[in-house]
Amino acid sequence: MKKLWSILIGGIGVLVLLGIASALWISSMGKDDGGAGRPTYGTYTWPMPTADTSAANVSAKQPTPRGGPIPRADGYVMGGQGHDFILPPMPPERKWDIHRRDNVFYNDSLKNWFFEGPRTRVGYFSTDPENYASENQLPDTGCTYDLAWFALPAGAKIVVRGEFPHMRYWSFATYSDKAIPLDMLQDFEIDPDAGSFNPFRPGISRDVSPRRYTFTIVNGSPPESRPRNTLYTLNEPGKTIALHMRNYIPDQGLDFLGQAGVPDVEVHLADGKILKGAEAAAATASPMRGKQGPLTVSPKMWLALNSLPWRPADRTPAHDFKAEPMERFYNREYLLAKTFFPIFARDSMAVDKGGFWSNSITRYAFKYLSQTYGSVYVVRGKMPSTPLTRDGDHKPMDQDADMRYWSLCTMPPPANGAATDCLYDEAVRPTLDSKGYFTVVISRAPDRPSNANVKCGVEWMEYGNGDGLVGGSSAFGAVGNRHTLVNPKFKQSWFAVTKPNSEVAAMGEYLPYVINMKTKARFEALGCPVDKTKLDAMVNEAAPVR
C-alpha cells in the first residue's frame, strides 16, 4: 500500500511539474522582437498626403475619431487594456466602402447612452485594437456592429423605438458575457408600428414611409406562445448581457445606420417609472459598458500551439497546395483540434455550436494561407444571387435571391480578432464572368499583379502582414467566406455542409476554391482580360471536377 501511495504521489508531482512548466512556457510567448522580418509597406489608419511617406508618419498624421496609439512601422501598438498587437495594413479606400475618410467622423457621432457608436475593423475609428470602436471578432467590414452592454433589473424592460433603416440586412441579438448567442430579432420579424410598414417584408417598397417600429428587451426565456417584437436575455435579472445591432450595407451615400438615426431607448421599471438618458444608464449599469469584449482565443496559447515540435517552421496552420476548396467552420473547439491536434479531431465534434458572437442565420468557411508557399492566391467559385440594394434600388427586397448577403474577407487568426480586407457581393458582381463565377486575387500590395483589377475582370484584396500577434508569424494568412440569411430554396450554401469533407458534394459549383498562383508574374501571364479558363483548369487538375 505504501508503494502504491508513493507511485500515486510521484505521478501527481510529475503532473504538477509538467503543468507548471507548460504554464511558464506559454507565458514566455509573445515577446516583442522589434519587428524583425515583418513587412512595413502599409499604413494603419486613413492615409493623407504628407512629405514623409513612412507608414508610421502617415498613420500619425491622420487622426481617427477615437484616437489611439501611433503604430510602429511594422504595425506594433500597445492596446488600451495593456495587450500588444500588430495592426493589419489598411486596405485601399474604395468608393463602395461603408466607412471612408469623408464620413468616418460623422458615423462615429451616431451614438447615445445605450448604443455607443459603430464598431468595425481596427484603424477606421481608432488605432487601438482594444478600444470599443474596434470589433475584435474577425469583423466583416460590410457590416457595422453596435454593441451595447447592460444588466436589466427584475421586472424591468428596455423599450427600443426607431425607424427601419435603408440597408441590406439589419438585426438585434443578445449574447452572454462569454460571447455565446442567446436570442435574436431579424429585420423582417419586427412588426411595424400601427400605420407604418416594414421595408424588409415581401412586396413592401424599400423607401416606404412611414417606417416606425417598437420592440422590447426582457429578462428570462420566451413563453410557449412568444409575443411579437420581444427579445429575451435568457438569463436571470442583473446578469451582464450584450446586445449586437448589426447593420449590413446601407444604401449608397447614407450613414452606417441607413439614415434611420440612433434608436431611442428607454428603461421601464417594474413600478411603471420610465427612465431615459443618464438615469436609464445608471439603472442598467454593466462593468462592460463602453469596453472592448474579450478575445475568445488566447494569443499566447495560439503562439504556443504553433510552436509545438510538429508544427511547420513558418508557425502557420497552412500547408502547400495547388488548388483546394474552402472548408466549413463549425465551432472553435473543432477548429483548434483539427488545426493543432488532427489525430484527436473527430467528425462528431463538427457540430453547430454558438460562440465567437455567432448568429443562427450565418455560416462561415475558411482557408489558411501562408507566404511561405506563395505570395499570390486566387479565390474562384460561382456567386450566389443576392438582393441589389447598394445603389438605392427602392423596389421591394428581392425575396427570391439565394441569400441576403455574401462576403469574402482576409483576416488574421481568432487570437488577434481583427480583419484585413473584405469584399461583399455587390462589390464583386461587376467582375463576374459569363458563367456567374467570381475571381478574387489575394496578395500583399507590393505583390499585387498589374492585371488584378476590375478592368481585367477580377477583384483584389489585401493579404495582410501576418497573424497580428507579437512574436508570431509574418507569413500567416487566411480567407473567410460568409453566407447570411440563406433562402430555404437554395440548397448549395454553407448550411448544406453538415459534416467534414462533404463540401464538394453539398455545394457543387458554388463551392469556392483557392488557387495558389505562387508568384505575381504567374498571374500576370493570364493577360487582360484574365484568362479564367486557365484558372478553372488549375482547379480541375488539382481537385475534383465541379
List the helices and strands and how they pair.
Layout: H1 2-27, H2 55-61, E1 76-78, E2 84-86, H3 104-108, E3 143-151, E4 157-163, E5 167-176, E6 181-186, E7 212-218, E8 230-232, E9 240-250, E10 264-268, E11 274-275, H4 277-283, H5 299-306, E12 323-325, E13 327-328, H6 332-340, E14 362-370, E15 376-382, E16 403-410, E17 421-424, H7 425-428, E18 437-443, E19 459-462, E20 476-486, H8 503-507, E21 513-516, H9 520-524, H10 532-542
Parallel strand pairs: 7-8, 18-19
Antiparallel strand pairs: 1-2, 3-9, 4-7, 4-10, 5-6, 5-9, 10-11, 12-21, 13-14, 14-20, 15-18, 15-21, 16-17, 16-20
Biggest sheet features: 5 strands, mixed
Oligomeric state, counting identical vs distinct chains? single chain
Relative helix content = 10-25%
**Uncertain parts:** 10-21
